[in-house]
Amino acid sequence: MATVIREYDAKLDSRDRLVLRDAEFEHYHVVMYDDGSVRLEPRVLAHPGELSARTLQMMDRSVASLEQGKTGEAVDFSRYRALLDEDDE
User: Fold this and answer.
1) Sign, Cα dihedral of 53, 56, 57, 58
2) Of 58, 32, 28, the residue nearest 45 (C-alpha)
3) Taking the model in full, what pTM does it have?
4) What does the pLDDT look like over 33-45, one tens digit per residue?
5) pLDDT by residue (tens digit) across 11-22?
6) What are the sequence ranges of the domains in the chain?
7) DSSP states of 4-40 as a string?
8) Is there a contact between 25 and 42 (Cβ–Cβ < 8 Å)?
């Protein structure tokens, strides 16, 4: 179980923004729920200089293939629909 390290009330500003005080990360993934709760997950983006040469080459080949129209077949997820529906119950 996670430990609460800080708790405070916040208000949206005139542009519907919410400020996180002393945030440890610059980027967050936001998940909003229908009950009004919000979950923030920190995201750390990699600087291109931090990626290995092999990774950059693979990315370049992938983009070139995409630009040439070389793509894989569409993935059919319909067979998993029943499993997803079971989780909702």
Assistant:
1) positive
2) 28
3) 0.47
4) 999 888 899 988 8
5) 989 999 988 999
6) 12-68
7) P---------TTS--PPTT-S-SEEEEEE-TTS-EEE
8) yes
